[in-house]
Amino acid sequence: MIQFQNVTKTYNKDVQALTDINLKVEKGEFIFLVGPSGAGKSTFIKLLLKEEEPTNGNIIVEGKDTTKISRRKVPFYRRSISVIFQDFRLLPNKTVYENVAFAMEIIEASSKEIRRQVPMVLSMVGLSDKARKYPHELSGGERQRVSIARAIVNNPSVLIADEPTGNLDPETAWEIMKVLKSISRRGTTIIMATHAKDIVNEMEQRVIALEKGRIVRDEQRGGYEYEN
Amino acid sequence: MKIKTFPYMIKQGLTGIWRNRGMSLASITTVSATLMILGLIITLVLNINGIAYMLQSQFDTVQLYLEEDIAHEEITDIGKEIGAIDGVSYVEFETKEEALDNLKEQWGDQGYLLDTLEDNPLPDSYIVHVENIETADSVVDELRKLDGIDEIKYYQDIIDNLLRIAGFVRTIGFALIMILILIAMFIISNTIKITLNARRQEITIMKYVGATNWFIRWPFVIEGMLLGFIGALIASGVVYFAYQSVFDIITTRLYVLFSGYMVTTQDMMTNVTIIFLIIGCGVGILGSIISLRKHLKV
Question: What are the start-end ranges of the H helices in chain A?
């Protein structure tokens, strides 16, 4: 599904963000990406999203070498890899429904598909009754669920979550984790970068730990093992 | 891009213009001011050229006015000498009486004014028809060498001067227009930049969700194009009314002779409107592309 082969990323010649990363992720896996700030988690995500190119090595996603995707094809690649962020990034002047539909409009889905798909994902994240609300009328957890709905509405094969619970209280964070877990059960691969020790420890999923740009630990049913 | 996306793009473009009314107005004003000046230049150049070519086709003759007290034989000799010059097709002799009659005819209704003259002030003249308008200059050079000639009236001079003026207006005018177009483009690109910044967040999301680059760019290109288009429409309207009224004044009140040689409003506006729309939209599109290149990394 996703494969990193000897991936190295160097910024400005001497800042080594990632060094010799080798990694294999199977379809439908749920992975926590942990490590101290500056360990290379953001770079890892940027490489997957093709916001950055590796200095060396190859990244293979669904059998395709991403380093060989032409600039023109990048948007189509991004439709198979979606992302959610700590700060939700919703459009404030659009309703919940419109925010989710927006993701479909810009890939030129038909209005028939939009009318079918949007209510479906809203019910998946438990927001059917909030469709007409604006983001500022929602709680943090609800906003993050809107952003999840937007991320999965086009059926991506990978969902990247960059500190999705960073702005949420523990209880709300768990709600989000439940939603992510249910998405994972439907076969979507999830890679979640996080500092949330309790969540990592309790979920007992595969944990990949980065330190100073290297993978220092990669274990199934792992724990967080850092003091925050 | 799918066809159903097109209304969405137009709507986005219009929204951009409306949200950012101040700068949009500035852009439209610059475009139309530029085009109005271009319109002035085009109308001047086309009309001067038109009159010059009209003169050229009607006066392919050189008129030689003979000195007052010249002997009859000398007149005949001069006639022969003229006939011998290369490039001369044939020569006509016009007595001063004939000249006066012709003038009366030309003046038409006002011809009676000439009846009050005590003395005929017009000289005898030879009218030299040249074989070819291009060789007229060399024929005139030869004619100047002849004796007994008071003045050579030669329309090529006027024609050349008119064409020179037209050329001058064109050169200076187009230099000016180039500068104005650059200014218009600069203002439009700044307007687009403001819309771009207002939609920064939306664009980021669009990129993450996988919108194609052109899907992101189109609304801005359309916004720029609409600004130019509106500017061009305004300029066309202004030039139309201005030209129409000048045309009316000239044809009705001033110089009836002139009127036939002016380009009609309809002919003028067909050309001008097309030119305006192309330049207006072009400037708008280029302005927004400049802005997108600078400020939108996709």
Answer: 41-48, 74-78, 96-105, 111-124, 140-152, 170-185, 197-203
